[in-house]
Amino acid sequence: MITSRRLLLGSATAGIAATLALTGCGPAATATGTGSGPAAPKAAAATTIPDPCTLLTKDDITTLTGTKMEADGKAGANHQCDWNEPDPATAYGVSLQILPITKERFQQDAAIGHPVTGVGDSAYTLAGSLIALHGTVTLRVLYLPALTTDNTLVMNVEKKIATAVLAKF
């Protein structure tokens, strides 16, 4: 059951990462202009991206979600950290990803999402994730609670997590 729960979180985060990559919000989203037509947006200026696993402890995540969580390891090249609820009978999970981005690129990506107020410089939701701009970085928060269809609850938890992370920048 733990494996299937982690596969669920892994599949969800992989799907979000693919969506973000397709919309230009990801590690491969740095483009340069070619000789013809308008130039693509420039990559964000060299930005130091913190390891998201160091920004919140499992106790912080437990407090923010109301459910005991465990960290699943360190962030890799994709600058992502995942936490899972240890009880195999449930499927709670949180994924946090931080990537460089330009404001222009963020605005283009936000056009396909739904605006969210009160988080970062600007924010939107897309495919269940809250995506917030803070300076030259984008923060993606995905909260997967067990057995709920309450989107307001999910968004409120994602906003609390994003606010806690952005306070550390």
TrEMBL record:
It comes from the Bacteria. Coiled coil: none annotated. Residues 1-31 form the signal peptide. InterPro entries: DUF3558 (IPR024520), TAT_signal (IPR006311). Keywords: Signal. This is DUF3558 domain-containing protein. It comes from Fodinicola feengrottensis.
